[in-house]
Amino acid sequence: MKMRRTVLIFTLTVATTLAGCGIGRVGAPPSVFDLGLDTKPVPTLPARAPIALSLQAVPVLSDTSVIWRVGDSAAPKAYATYRWASAPSELVRQRITDRLSRQGAVLADRVNLQMPQLQLSLMQFEQVYAEDGQSSEGRILLQAVLVNGRAVMDQKRIQVRVPAATQDAAGGVAALRQATDEAADQLAQWLASAASAPAATSRPAG
């Protein structure tokens, strides 16, 4: 019961602070974030044949809100005075495309049915606070399916959690930048083996 009260107090405190940021400020523009420049080195991997990439996201990630929540709460919140420069689905797609392009071309559409297609679903992209409010982390969750023609070659679930250095929107954004890069690198390493798997190991798409 005490823990529940602590969580409630923390949630109300953060929500009140965020809502109060705009009091007395008429028309103050929100702070806008993106994923920054892609300067981190990528894993050293063999060159890869061209692939097509598509990405879809859950509805809560379809606009520019910076999402946060407390623990495993089913009630996501949005920072009142912070926004992403584009919807998270677009930011993540661009970043993954940039990093995967170091090993081989990444296209928006298939040139032909023989070209493998990487189908990504962005399930989570948010800052998650501990129940006591003393720590948080940026979390990204991707479901990846590699398709060749009408056959599923392989699939992988990628979840990355990166601790935030500060317990605010800026700290969450920085953690999500790092988490996105790490998720892209895990995808690249997976593709290095999945894309070269023999056709006999593939299975029809359901």
Describe the global form. elongated
- As residue ranges, the low-confidence spans are 1-9, 16-24, 199-206
**Helix content estimate:** 25-40%
Specify Rg, calculated over alpha carbons: 19 Å
In total, how many beta strands? 9
The average pLDDT is 86
Proportion of beta-strand residues: 25-35%
| H-E order | HEEEEHEEEEHE
- End-to-end Cα distance, whole Å, is 46 Å
Counting H and I runs of at least 4 residues, what is the number of helices? Answer: 3
Largest sheet geometry: 9 strands, mixed
Main structural class:
alpha/beta
Could you characterize what this model shows?
The chain has 206 residues and is α/β, with parallel strands linked by helices. 28% of the residues lie in helices and 33% in strands. The chain has 3 helices and 9 strands. Strands 1, 2, 3, 4, 5, 6, 7, 8 and 9 form a 9-stranded mixed beta sheet that branches. Helix 2 packs across helix 3 (169-194). The model is unreliable at 1-9, 16-24 and 199-206 (pLDDT under 50).
Quick structural gist:
It contains 3 helices and 9 strands. It is α/β, with parallel strands linked by helices. Helix 2 crosses helix 3.
Topology:
Layout lengths: L1 H19 L10 E3 L17 E7 L7 E6 L6 E8 L3 H13 L5 E2 L9 E13 L6 E13 L2 E13 L5 H26 L8 E2 L2
Parallel strand pairs: 1-4, 2-5, 2-6, 3-6
Antiparallel strand pairs: 3-4, 6-7, 7-8, 8-9
Helix pairs in contact: 2-3
